[in-house]
Amino acid sequence: MKINQEIAKDFPQLYSSAVQYKERGEKYQLWQEQVANELTLVGAEPNKIIWEFEVKDKHCNMLKNIHGGCVATVIDVCSSFAILTSAGKHHWKFVGVSTGLSVQYFSGMKPGQIARIECEAQQVGKNLGSVYTRIYNKEDNRLCYSSTHGKFRIDSRL
């Protein structure tokens, strides 16, 4: 996972959480690292973050399109961090846990293509949050996938 240093200055909690996530993944060799290691955080503003991800052969199914499970994992990882950019009155220390993840698949992506992943924190409350994600093919700006992701705050439990 790579993060633009300008983003680190503007969103220190986002940067800190991303570093902790990366270090934990390296220490325990978590399965989602096959996706997280390929992600680059390229933009952040209040309530929104933008990632890029290059689709590789290891992410694809037999039809040479990115596997649906891989898309869901990309969305789970990327959208979780959007919670930390909340401009509202509630600010979470951690990304929380998922309460639901719904993915819509519109158009496949092939190895070598770059996905632009835009995640918007729609609502971040005291205990529940909601993030809407759109994944575009960077080459032609085609919408390939979208998602809604529900989150539950775990700050008080850690």
UniProtKB/TrEMBL annotation:
GO molecular function, one term: fatty acyl-CoA hydrolase activity
Keyword Hydrolase: yes
Organism domain of life: Eukaryota
Keyword vocabulary terms for this entry: Hydrolase
Gene3D superfamilies: Hotdog Thioesterase (3.10.129.10)
Family of the protein in this entry: Belongs to the thioesterase PaaI family.
Domain Thioesterase: 65-143
Record has Hydrolase as a keyword: yes
Any Pfam family hit: 4HBT
The name this protein goes by in its record: HotDog domain-containing protein
